[in-house]
Task: structure prediction
Amino acid sequence: MSHNDNEVLIEIEKLVKTYRMGQETVQVLHDVDLTVNKGDFLAIVGPSGSGKSTMMNIIGCLDIPTSGSYKLDGVEVKGLSDNKLAAIRNDKIGFIFQGFQLLPKLTAIENVELPLVYRGLSNKERRKRAAEALRKVGLEERMFHKPSELSGGQQQRVAIARALAGEPPMLLADEPTGALDTRTGQEVLALMEQLHQQGHTIVLITHDMEVAARAERVVRMKDGVLTEDHAERRERREAFAGIQDGI
Amino acid sequence: MKLSQAFRMAFKSVLANKLRTALSMLGMLIGVATVIALVSMSEGSSRQVQAQVESLGAANMLQVTITGRGLTTSLSKDEAMEYGDIDNVEGVSPIVNGNAYAKYGTTSESYTVEGITPEYADVRNVSFVEGRYIVDMDLTNYNKVAVIGANVASDLFDTEDPVGKTLLLNGNRYKVVGLLETKGDSLNGSADDKILIPLTTAERLLSSKGVKSIYLKITDTDKSEATQALITAKLAAKFPNSTNAYRVIDQQESMETLGSITQTMTSMMAGIAAISLVVGGIGIMNIMLVSVTERTREIGIRKSLGAKRRDILTQFLIEAVAISGLGGAIGIAIGYVASHIIGVVMDTETAVSFAMVVEAFAFSAGVGVIFGIFPANKAARLRPVDALRHD
Ligand SMILES: Nc1ncnc2c1ncn2[C@@H]1O[C@H](COP(=O)(O)OP(=O)(O)OP(=O)(O)O)[C@@H](O)[C@H]1O
Ligand SMILES: [Mg+2]
Result:
């Protein structure tokens, strides 16, 4: 494998998130600890309302924790300015959302270019990298189509290409198959497995155990508490290693 | 993000919503068109006034009128000419004036008659188109010759060439030797409606002994007040103990009064126009605010992909400026055409100056910035989590 297993990418300690609702405060995440190494394929699974999206927003630097520590790639995220967080999102995170979140007025390639626009790359360089990313997800034929001219599966692949375009160290997917039928969902998952094998770190959030089972490592979220079955983890690791070694 | 890219993005979005863009720029467009049309009208008329005043040579002219006291009610011609020795005075034109009936053929009418010296031409800046002027010889010989204004010529002689013809002034025969150039309306009554004859002859014709009015041309208008003081002193010596026996009138003052009237008119129109531009700006702000709400999700997506506050702010600001600037540009074109049409239909002079065009455009773009900042800032401040959840 191209990555180093021991290099830590995400380090979360005693993370708490509370929401203020009028007078009351609702605690959504309770002292969450989580470590993700580079090259991991992690699934966070849990029932609706358990706090998965909240977790993903914090991991994705879209939201800030109430207390606790979150280090991404060695950098403490808590207390950073809006601009710094934007730069981190641009640099280190590739988002894959449940609802695709493509801009409807832009073509597939223009959508894929967006993170590179905010990175300040030249027109030519952007085109090149965006085309390359679309090729990776098998959509080079559909580059100049608007999202409305693409199927759900194709739209999600555009979204994945967009997440890949900036070559971030981590892909963050929130229910990536949630809006897709079983078959296209499987295709997307296969694509993510493939990306994992190419060395991408993936954090996948889902409520579906079957989907989570595709990951190398699974953590469970329930009522804002995160637990990990270590036995399960080891077993999966070995299984993955087996596949990769071609046994 | 690069600024060029921000421009491209903003223009794309402006063009993607053609109807909305057109509607939101309408206020701006009408505002600017109104500015151009109104200001061009007042500028045109103020140019007209200025041209008249300039043709009078009024800016560097002083007028002395003598009403007199007791026995001395006027100056002699020689006394009047002495005022030419005063520092800064370039020329002196003493005048004897009154009214007389002029008759040619069967037409007869009352006109202002001015008895003048040859200096009149230079001091009052009147040139003639035909014939000759009144010369010193005419004065010494008491020649009965006349130079007539353009309106007098057309009234009395119709299409005939007046030069060489003889007309009757209060029954006396005067030979027309020259015709003045048309000057248009002016402050002191136009020379167009005057008959000019030699000063000496006029004294007899009008049976008025002495000069009652002197026009003085000065070299340096900045020193006008000092010169006026010297003139007043000289008059005071002539008419002791009676300060209201004479009056020194500064032509510049009356010109300034007139100028300030047109100025007031211009600024009033500019004020009205500015209000309509502000209304246009509010229209743009309105649309931009709706647009921000409508595009909250887009903003969320862009932010999640790494757009900084500044990126979102510039994008929306450029959009606002593009809309208002485009509205301004089209408004200028329409205003330009409208001012021409107004000029033709109302038969007034209109003038669209380059400075006005630049100002109007800059103003409309500025309105875009001012009214765009609030919505753009609102967009830039959205939190990505909230923006992404929005639907
Ligand atoms: N902005 C907010 N204000 C108040 N409470 C919130 C807010 N966002 C989320 N919550 C609460 O936090 C809890 C967890 O929400 P979250 O969206 O993380 O759940 P989830 O695990 O993603 O659920 P699902 O599978 O349905 O997407 C819920 O009870 C929700 O009501
Ligand atoms: Mg969720």
About this structure: Residues 251-294 of chain B form the longest helix (44 residues). The CA atoms of residues 26 and 327 of chain B lie 7 Å apart.
